[in-house]
């Protein structure tokens, strides 16, 4: 006889079905404005609702097709949140959602819990598609879904009735095979990072690179950059002469740089969604900066869009400082180049 699937343990967490001991803390955090702000339950959330939710899970030892499940996230004996997992009646599609108390946010807890549950429904239950829906305002959840490997699928306008108004709704999804590919992708630092020319032979490979959907307002696509290279205009009275380079890691296309060198301007820079977090961006940009310094330049200009999720912290960490000026709504910044480090 096989062991019950729940409770399930990860490195830091215990995942189990909600139980009587969760009624009071569940009621409390579902009424917390920071937690409830963009969730779909009605307010106020009563203890009776929590009690009824717990009762639906009595006796369960694993997920069941044709119903929804609320999985408690327990860390060091404390309920810190929950993950919703609903499986359709055919057992092929699972819908996910999550919530955390404020004190547990920003620590990778929701990622750890949801990762374990996604892999469980795929590998143990044979689910072939994972979906999630959320408000367009819920940037934190969108970014978590992207880190899990889900991709943006659609936006439906004024389609979700939510606390008295029609709200826009985002849909994210991934297939089981996409999850396995995402899980097995390289995540550590590559042995080799280099800048390579964009040529007729590799331009299509680089054009297929993508950032996460939540990053698109900050980063132009490679294809848009190709088009802008043809209609480049000028800057500070000098024509922008676009130079295009691919970023290659261990022989694989992973990123893109476009710049003009007359008065060095970092025009475009991106790392593909599958290769972010590996330290590639910093290494590639440091190589490019060293090249500008070697060519005798004393400063580099760039610009960025401000907002939550902006690349501003990345550029600041490399030494770029805002000038106080703006160009078409973007913050202008300069990096002053000293001598080549020994």
SSE layout:
Layout: E1 8-9, E2 14-17, H1 23-30, H2 33-36, H3 47-55, E3 67-75, E4 78-87, E5 93-100, H4 109-123, E6 129-135, H5 139-148, E7 151-162, E8 165-175, H6 176-184, E9 193-197, H7 203-207, H8 222-230, E10 234-235, E11 238-239, E12 242-249, E13 252-260, E14 265-271, H9 280-294, E15 299-304, H10 312-317, E16 321-327, E17 330-336
Parallel strand pairs: 5-6
Antiparallel strand pairs: 1-2, 2-3, 3-4, 4-5, 6-8, 7-8, 9-12, 10-11, 12-13, 13-14, 15-17, 16-17
Helix pairs in contact: 1-3, 4-5
The CATH C-level name of the largest domain is Alpha Beta
Main sheet makeup: 8 strands, mixed
Quickly count the helices: 10
Q: Mind telling me which CATH architecture of the largest domain this is?
A: 3-Layer(aba) Sandwich
Per CATH, the superfamily of the largest domain is Gcn5-related N-acetyltransferase (GNAT)
Helix content: 25-40%
- Main-sheet strand order equals 1-2-3-4-5-6-8-7
In one word, what is the shape?
Answer: elongated
In round numbers, the mean pLDDT is 95
Beta-strand content estimate: 25-35%
Order of helices and strands: EEHHHEEEHEHEEHEHHEEEEEHEHEE
CATH topology of the largest domain: Aminopeptidase
Terminal CA distance reads 65 Å
Structural class: alpha+beta
Q: What is the total number of structural domains?
A: 2
**Alpha carbon gyration radius:** 24 Å
How many beta-strand segments?
17
Parts with pLDDT < 50 across at least 5 consecutive residues:
none
Oligomer: single chain
């Amino acid at each position: 006889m096989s062991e019950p699937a729940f409770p399930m343990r990860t490195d830091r967490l215990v995942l189990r079905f909600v139980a009587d001991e969760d009624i009071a803390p569940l009621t409390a955090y579902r009424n917390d404005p920071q937690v409830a702000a963009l969730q779909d339950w009605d307010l106020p959330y009563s203890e009776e609702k929590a009690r009824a939710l717990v009762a639906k899970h009595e006796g369960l030892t694993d997920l069941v097709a044709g119903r929804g499940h609320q999985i408690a996230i327990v860390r060091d004996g404390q309920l810190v949140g929950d993950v919703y997992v609903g499986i359709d009646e055919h057992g092929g599609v699972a819908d996910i959602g999550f919530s955390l108390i404020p004190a547990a946010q920003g620590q990778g807890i929701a990622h750890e819990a949801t990762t374990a549950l996604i892999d469980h429904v795929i590998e143990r239950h044979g689910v072939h598609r994972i979906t999630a829906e959320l408000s367009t305002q819920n940037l934190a959840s969108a970014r978590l879904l992207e880190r899990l490997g889900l991709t943006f699928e659609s936006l439906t306008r004024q389609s979700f009735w939510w606390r008295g108004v029609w709200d826009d709704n985002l849909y994210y999804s991934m297939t089981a095979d996409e999850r396995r590919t995402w899980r097995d992708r390289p995540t550590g630092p590559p042995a080799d990072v280099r800048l390579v020319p964009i040529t007729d032979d590799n331009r299509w490979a680089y054009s297929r690179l993508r950032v996460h959907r939540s990053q698109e307002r900050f980063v132009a696509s490679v294809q848009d950059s190709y088009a802008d290279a043809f209609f480049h205009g000028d800057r500070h009275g000098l024509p922008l002469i676009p130079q295009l380079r691919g970023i290659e890691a261990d022989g694989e296309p992973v990123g893109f740089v476009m710049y003009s060198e007359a008065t060095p301007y970092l025009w475009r820079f991106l790392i593909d969604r599958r290769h972010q977090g590996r330290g590639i961006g910093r290494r590639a940009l440091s190589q490019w900066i060293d090249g500008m310094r070697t060519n005798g330049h004393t400063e580099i200009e760039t610009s960025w869009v401000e907002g939550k999720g902006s690349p501003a912290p990345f550029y600041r960490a490399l030494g770029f400082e805002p000038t106080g000026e703006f160009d078409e709504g973007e913050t202008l910044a300069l990096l002053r180049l000293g001598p080549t480090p020994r």
